[in-house]
Write a structure and sequence with these properties.
The complex is a heterodimer of chains A (about 200) and B (about 350).
Chain A (H helix, E strand, L loop, with lengths): L6 H9 L12 H6 L4 H24 L9 H23 L1 H7 L10 H11 L4 H31 L1 E2 L2 E2 L12 H26 L1
Antiparallel strand pairs in A: 1-2
Helix pairs in contact in A: 1-7, 3-4, 3-6, 3-7, 4-5, 4-6, 6-7
Chain B lengths: L1 H11 L19 H11 L1 H11 L2 H23 L10 H11 L8 H16 L11 H12 L1 H6 L1 E2 L15 H4 E2 L2 H17 L3 H9 L11 H13 L6 H17 L9 H6 L3 H8 L10 H21 L6 H8 L3 H7 L14
Antiparallel strand pairs in B: 1-2
The chains are: A mainly alpha (about 200), B mainly alpha (about 350).
Chain lengths: ~200, ~350
């Protein structure tokens, strides 16, 4: 199962063509639930990036000693370990932002995207490639969260990163969880459209 | 031996006379356009009445809503590469119903936004006419209620005095806004309700005729019943959905709506709020309601029960909008649960 992509290609792959939120449609729960502001999206994105990179590397190092039958519990325990680390670090360093995110940092344990990347990639590939893949997926998730958070914060509360830019609140609707689905859906359509356009222009 | 004969008969029959075509075999003069424009015509009397109840600006809001719905329909059909079908009246009907369920004192900007949401996202992105599983007009109202909670729950107007239909033009909404009967009942209790609107037979009559605060088109039970009755007479809708909705609302309000059990006021529950408009014109939408008789009755009972639940225990004074929206996606499920019995079920399996 040799991987023929370079590290840079893996990162770009995670951000664009296999973006976890917009292309793979994984981990939609946080994408809808927490992405009401850019800051929330960024914070959760950083936490996921950290957990994804370290879990991928850990599993990749130990891939030869993990028995296939118990691989899923092993993945879960590995992810839980790194989630505990980032949970305690965030609670100590940024208590205010941590309080806003609430349970979602702990819920990273159950994020489909992380388990899926361990199962699909890290348990077969080298440590170096797993690192780049984890980085790409984490960055892709972060970019997605920030973009969704940007749209929802701008339209919902007329602000960006907490600064009031519009001076009024255009549509309160966008703060609500149901609007998260609309924003994610429209973003997905936009990504698909860009890919279609790119392929068509290429030939 | 007999089998052999049968097959011989078939082969010798004059095959050319057997013209087999796909159903339907009976053609009627009804079409989508005709039905839609008839429903639009049935909604004209309540619209005209609303001018005399709330003033001329209801006409303006309705016009903005209808025009923006038609424009959004044309633009989204063009953008999605579909045939432009603005002449079939469905967008006009959606615009009219959308205007009917918003308060008369809102800014005309609101129906435009609601039209974009209802027609583009609620109708065309979900498949276009015939495929949308939510009622677009109610989706627009739910969107407005979520986005502009203050305007949508406070821009009510008292009925104008006499024929002063221009009296609300140019006045500030904050100064003249009032509360709907259901909101007063829910938030302040029966005593305040009696004080504000009176009681007795005169109350029922004025409410039934339409002289009460409320959304633009929902106030006049009489005219809506006449319009719904005409649709029933033309067999465009059947009695199953409206009767089961209104009956359930009346019975459940009678049982649970009062201070103790069986002390509620079923008549008042029907003439206040949007029950009649919802039952006759919203819930009977062809696309979003079930098709078999039993499932239509179950659908109506569920809508009525949800409405009473939201009215009595929920956070909003009126619940029929959300009740219909909640039941809309379930209509296909109900159809598959309550399949009609086949006349000649296959016996012993296919040969």
């Amino acid at each position: 199962m040799a991987n023929d992509k370079s590290g840079m290609q893996l990162v770009v792959n995670g951000i664009l063509s296999e973006n976890p939120i917009f292309r793979l449609a994984l981990s939609m729960c946080p994408a809808v639930g927490i992405s009401t502001t850019v800051m929330n999206g960024l914070m959760l994105g950083i936490a996921v990036l950290f957990v994804q990179v370290f879990s991928s590397v850990t599993i990749s190092i130990f891939k030869n000693v993990i028995h296939p039958r118990i691989r899923i519990p092993t993945y879960t325990l590995t992810i839980a370990t790194w989630v505990t680390v980032i949970d305690l670090v965030l609670a100590a360093l940024l208590p205010d932002a941590y309080a806003k995110m609430g349970i979602f940092v702990k819920l990273i344990v159950a994020f489909a995207i992380i388990t899926m990347r361990l199962e699909m990639f890290a348990c077969k590939e080298s440590v170096k490639d797993s690192f780049w893949d984890g980085l790409g997926m984490g960055l892709g998730f972060m970019v997605g969260m920030v973009v969704i958070g940007f749209v929802r914060e701008l339209l919902g509360s007329g602000a960006i990163l907490g600064y009031d830019v519009l001076g009024f609140k255009p549509l309160l609707f966008f703060i609500l969880p149901s609007a998260g689905f609309f924003v994610v859906g429209l973003m997905m359509a936009f990504f698909n459209w860009i890919e279609l356009y790119y392929k068509r222009s290429k030939g | 031996m007999i089998k052999q004969q049968v097959s011989d008969d078939q082969t010798t029959a004059p095959v050319k006379l057997w013209k087999v075509s796909v159903s339907p075999h009976i053609k009627s003069s009804e079409s989508v356009e005709k039905i839609m424009w008839t429903v639009v015509a049935c909604l004209m009397p309540p619209l005209i009445l609303s001018v005399f109840v709330f003033g001329i600006q209801t006409l303006f809001i309705t016009a903005v809503s209808v025009v923006s719905c038609v424009v959004v329909e044309a633009v989204s059909q063009k953008a999605l590469g579909r045939r432009v079908t603005i002449k079939d009246g469905s967008a006009v009907l959606t615009g009219l119903l959308l205007a009917f369920v918003i308060p008369p004192g809102v800014s005309p900007l609101l129906p435009i936004l609601a039209a974009i949401f209802a027609i583009y996202i609620g109708k065309h992105l979900l498949g276009g006419i015939g495929y949308n599983f939510f009622n677009p007009a109610l989706l627009g109202r739910a969107f407005l209620l979520a986005s502009f909670p203050v305007a949508m729950t406070s821009a009510w107007l008292s009925p104008v005095e006499g024929f002063g239909i221009f009296s609300y033009l140019g006045t500030s909404i904050d100064a003249i806004s009032t509360a709907t009967p259901l909101a007063v009942m829910k938030e302040q209790g029966l005593a305040a309700f009696t004080e504000a609107f009176g009681s007795g037979a005169g109350l029922y009559t004025s409410f039934f005729l339409g002289w009460r605060p409320g959304c633009i088109g929902e106030t006049s039970g009489l005219l809506l019943l006449l319009g719904g009755g005409y649709l029933l007479y033309r067999k465009y809708i059947t009695y199953h959905i409206p009767v089961s909705i209104l009956g359930t609302i009346a019975v459940l309000t009678w049982v649970f709506g009062g201070e103790t059990y069986f002390r509620g006021d079923p008549l008042l529950a029907l003439v206040t709020g949007g029950a009649i408009l919802g039952a006759f014109f919203m819930a009977t939408d062809y696309v979003t309601s079930p098709t078999t008789k039993i499932s239509q009755i179950v659908y109506g009972i569920c809508i009525g029960a949800l409405t009473v639940l939201i009215r009595l225990k929920g956070g909003y004074p009126e619940g029929i909008c959300y009740a219909i929206l909640l039941m809309n996606p379930l209509s296909t499920v109900l159809d598959s649960w309550f399949k009609p019995k086949r006349f000649a079920p296959p016996q012993g399996g296919a040969e």
